[in-house]
Design a protein that fits this description.
With about 100 residues, this protein is mainly α. The chain contains four helices and no strands. It has one domain. Helix 1 packs parallel to helix 4. The longest helix has about 30 residues.
Length: about 100
């Protein structure tokens, strides 16, 4: 039972981070202009939102589910790649579809 619950929690965290990255990428595509910010600004925003998602998910899970998941270390690394990849994918996709006038 605990292994099944752990896998379900892992899926939930993984896809939550994917969705957060996608929404952030879409939002960033709508509001980003080259004159306003650079890629360093985008990286700062990504890291800040990722840390915020860590604290939000940690608070929503609670202590018991966090222990079932594998602790804070597991939560920190779970879904980090999909978060950044979905952010970049949706940022480039929506910016090039709707705002690129080249």
């Amino acid at each position: 039972m605990a292994e099944n619950e752990q896998k379900n929690l892992e899926k939930m965290v993984y896809w939550s981070r994917c969705a957060i990255g996608a929404v952030l990428g879409l939002t960033y595509a709508v509001f980003w202009r080259a004159s306003i910010g650079s890629l360093l600004t985008a990286a700062s925003v990504m890291i800040t939102v990722y840390l915020g998602s860590h604290y939000l998910i940690s608070a929503l899970l609670g202590k018991h589910r966090l222990e079932v998941l594998g602790g804070k270390g597991k939560l920190q690394t779970l879904g980090i790649g999909i978060f950044f990849l979905s952010f970049l994918f949706f940022w480039v996709l929506f910016y090039s579809l709707f705002f690129y006038a080249g």
